[in-house]
Structures are given as C-alpha cells and as structure tokens.
Amino acid sequence: METRFYIADDDLSIQRILESIIEKHHLGFVIGTATDGKSTVNEVASLQPDIVLVDLLMPHIDGIGVVSMLNKSKCNSSFIMISQVDSSDMIAAAYEKGIEFFINKPINVVEVVSVIKNVKEKHSLTKMLYSFESAVKIMRGNEPVPSKSEGQDYLKANIRKVLANLGISGEAGYQDLVEMLYLLISRSPHPSLYTSSPKMSEAYELLKNHYQHSGSLINTGTIEQRIRRTIKSALNNLAHRGLEDYHDDIFIRYSSLLFEFSEVRREMDYLKGKQKSSGKISVRKFVDGIQILLADESAS
C-alpha cells in the first residue's frame, strides 16, 4: 500500500513543491492539504494519513499545537515539521510533542527525500512490528530464551556497529553513548521497537546512576560534555564522508536521521572554508535516530 501524505502549510507554493517532490520520487500520494492549523487537526483526525508534513508557523493553531492535539486524540500519523525557525527552544518543544524530523526552509529536494524515506521506514516498521508482535511470540514459544548476558552482548554489539559507521569508536564519550543507548532501549516495554527517548537530562541521570551502581562516580555534566563532543565528531566525520561522495549510502541515510540536514550542510561548508561556524548537533535527535536504526536492523 502506498504511503498517504497530508501537507499543512499556509504557503501554497510550498504545498505544491512538496507534493511535486512526493510524486516525482514515487514516495506516495497526497490525500489532503490545509493552510491553517484548525483545518489540519480536523482533517487529519478524519483522514488518518500515514505522514503529515506540517508547517511550524500557521494561522489559528501552530504546528506544535497541531501535533499535540492530534497525539492526544490517538492519531497514528507520523509528523514532519517544516520550519525556517532556528530557535533551539522551539525545536526542542516540537520534538517533545512528537515531531519525527524537521525539514528546513528553503526547501531542499535531497533533504526532503531523505527525511521522508526515513520517516516512511520508521512508520512502516512500527506498524508491522505491532501488528505481528503477538504472532511472533507464539511462533517462538518453543525456542530457548537467550540469557540476560547474551541479550546484553547482542544489543551492545549492534549499537557499537552503528556507531562504528560514524568513526567515533575512539572518542571519550563513545562508551557513554553505548551504555546510554543500551539503558534506554532495555527499559522500553517493546525493546524491538523504537520509542522516543525521555528528556536528555533524565537520560544523563539514568547513566550516572548506572555508573554509580558499578562503583564509578561521574557527574551528569561530565557525561553530557563527553557525549556532545563525541556526537560533534560524528557530525564532522559524516560531513567529510559527504564531501568525498555525496551519494554515499551511509551519508544519505545518517545525515538527516541523526542530524538536521541543514547543520550537516553547514559543517560541510565549514570544512570547505565557506562558513565561519560549524554545524550544530542535537543529542536528542542523535539518540532517537540511533534507536530507529537499531529497530530497523532488528526487523530486517
């Protein structure tokens, strides 16, 4: 079944551009559009599209309000925010309300296609795993259950494999990321499914407590600093990879899944000497993105 899209943006030209990209790249089809938040809430609740592309700044109800209201109504759509706003507080608020990814204005075709493909992948995966979860349990009823240590080793090996693709295995915060991701995934009621992470402050506290139980005393500030530096190195490595081959599979997949694509472009321009400042990172987006990658690999 083709993916069904709904586009909400008060700029009709943006609507047409996005619809054209979706059709031209065979990503699915658009089942509805709106230019204000109130109409979006009503129509999306009724149509139940797979993916909603929603502008951050719209009349009546803004994009964050739209997503918040639809999630409260148990809408099963996935959301992509369209924005030309770079306020970190507003972006953080959007992620808290359930936004999957951001597409930055002005519209970049490569970014739109990459983001939509990642969200499609996650949306399809989540539906599939929830649908067949009971059947899988029945089918595996007679199989031996792996020990706790075997499960830990398998999960951590998969985490390390994904991080290795980013070239950060030698960074100071590498082990912090491995342990944090393991703790976040393990505490999920459905470890094989992607579930949005808690606030990063809670994740740092979770990791600090984990270290304390192991006899290591490290404060959350140190943990956060090491993790941020490591993710920054990942961004730098990925930008180098994109400069070498813009069509590299890992670059295409990771650049919008783990980072804002605009920040990857900024980092590339910085490396080429075209920008005075380097790209920025979001720890929350990176951590959520890694979990999506892991959920995808566990299902394949």
UniProtKB/TrEMBL annotation:
The keyword Phosphoprotein applies. The modification 4-aspartylphosphate is found at residue 55. One of its GO terms (biological process) is phosphorelay signal transduction system. The keyword Transmembrane helix does not apply. It comes from the Bacteria. Gene3D superfamilies: 3.40.50.2300. Residues 4-120 form the Response regulatory domain. PROSITE patterns: RESPONSE_REGULATORY. Pfam families: Response_reg, YcbB. Keywords: Phosphoprotein. PANTHER family: RESPONSE REGULATORY DOMAIN-CONTAINING PROTEIN (PTHR44591:SF3), STRESS RESPONSE REGULATOR PROTEIN 1 (PTHR44591). May play the central regulatory role in sporulation. It may be an element of the effector pathway responsible for the activation of sporulation genes in response to nutritional stress. Spo0A may act in concert with spo0H (a sigma factor) to control the expression of some genes that are critical to the sporulation process. This is Stage 0 sporulation protein A homolog.
